[in-house]
Fold:
Amino acid sequence: MQRIPKETSVNLAVDLGGLAMKNPVTTASGTFGAGMEYHDFVDVAALGAVTTKGVSLNGWEGNASPRIAETPSGMLNSIGLQNPGVTHLKEVELPWLASIGATAMVNVSGHSFDEYVAVIEALEEAPVAAYEVNISCPNVDAGGMTMGCHVPSVEKVVSLCRAATKRPLIVKLTPNVTDVVEIAKAAEAAGADGISLINTLLGMAIDARTRTPLLARVVGGFSGPAVKPVALRMVWQVAQAVKVPVLGMGGISTSTDAVEFMLAGATAVAVGTANFVNPTATVDVIDGIIDYCEAQGVADVNELIGALKC
Amino acid sequence: MTLCNENAPILVNEEMGCNIWLMTVRAPEIAATARPGQFVHVKVPGMEAHILRRPFGVYAADAEAGTVDMMYQVLGFGTERMTELAVGDAVEMIGPIGRGWQPPEGCKRALIVAGGVGSAPLYPLAEELTAAAVATDAILGASTIDALVARERYGAVLGCEPACSTDDGTYGRAGFCTPLVEEALAAAAAEGVPYDYVACCGPEPLMKIVAAMADAAGVFCEVSMERRMACGVGACLSCVVDTVDGKRRACVDGPVFPASEVVW
Structure:
């Protein structure tokens, strides 16, 4: 049975750097495919946006198995951005999202500066509402997080992507840096319309009995409820430091988590690992935000953004 | 095919032997559409720090009674927790998921090879094949006699005792079940009624050997692959299997693959 959000008089619409979202809830890239896999459970078109799995120009095979490991209140993954390439996205997933009336934000990946630009150029005629530039994946040897840890490379990749499109450009940051604010400011200065964070924290897990790592690639990205305090702190820091809106994510499983991110300064939120646990998590979060607003006498969800009292 | 997420009350949860348990739940929607070889993705209650669901092959689906049987071996925190669940508790489960067994069209004689709890997802296939009047033989391998928990069910559906092996020699042939497979393939060929289908589920080394034996005998073979899994619905790409067509998802492209497509 496909869930849809409940009716409400609360205004849920938010503007994420030019991306018009009917409610503040999207999906964290890589946890939701392009929505097809979850459409039996939730009406994907009812989400503020669907953020699609990271896409590269010609497709990547990804990393060896095992690719995941469960850890206390979280999980590690080292998928490695496996994807069939931008042509497949254009021919299959994006037309499907358009046909059901969903709002698509495409997560753009690359091994090189040129590849990011090439992916965006390939998508400029496709039904895409916004781009999320992934300079934060910890599971690839080139591109991803390697570009998102240093101000000069952040400035370069964001500037090049900015020049390639007029569409809303959200830049997704890694938490695996000394000063996330410095990186966020660099992305903003280079033309980002919004900042999304956090991508996964670099972590690892070991099987003491066999003395082997639990992931084939040894290290991987840590996500799930356990990372929420780190994510919340970084969203709060970044939201105070930049003028562009922030898309907050990291361990959001419930509407209370989502509200906390908005109070910390996020204009919108993404549900990620929680989709694996609860296939209706996205709509559950929307419904819970509505309940919260109604109970608190909030007429417009935008009132929550940065409303933390401290 | 539509997936559903059912809250499934537990009707039976008991140890069959050797840390292998049977759980029967009421899940009418899944029971009505499950095909042999498909699985369910189970959220075990009361273990919030262990966030992921656990996949289990459907051991039996009774559309009329609206029930689903799962066989599980206690191997870690999740399965340990499952043993503590009582009749009246409920588990949430997504299903039925995946590509099940697909015997070749016109299949006349089939060989089922199960190692350990691999006997579970093969049992509905045994039911389907015998119902379709396909001559079906089964070989069950286990560590010891008490771990041969599906022997009686197979005997009932096949109308004869399945061939069995135990690692410790407490029942049937002593040692691994692979010599039984080789003998069965050779005997069928010698009788002039060779198998045209081998279905195997169990530890990966067993499936690899059986796939090679079937290939040598020129018999089409399918295997059911197991991987660590997160979403269970095809989105996260955690559970990929190396195949001749690249890395494919065990959850929805499998779990059953033609053995010739698997890169071992």
In short: The radius of gyration of chain A is 18 Å. The first helix of chain A runs from residue 86 to 100. Chain A touches chain B through 34 residues (CB under 8 Å).
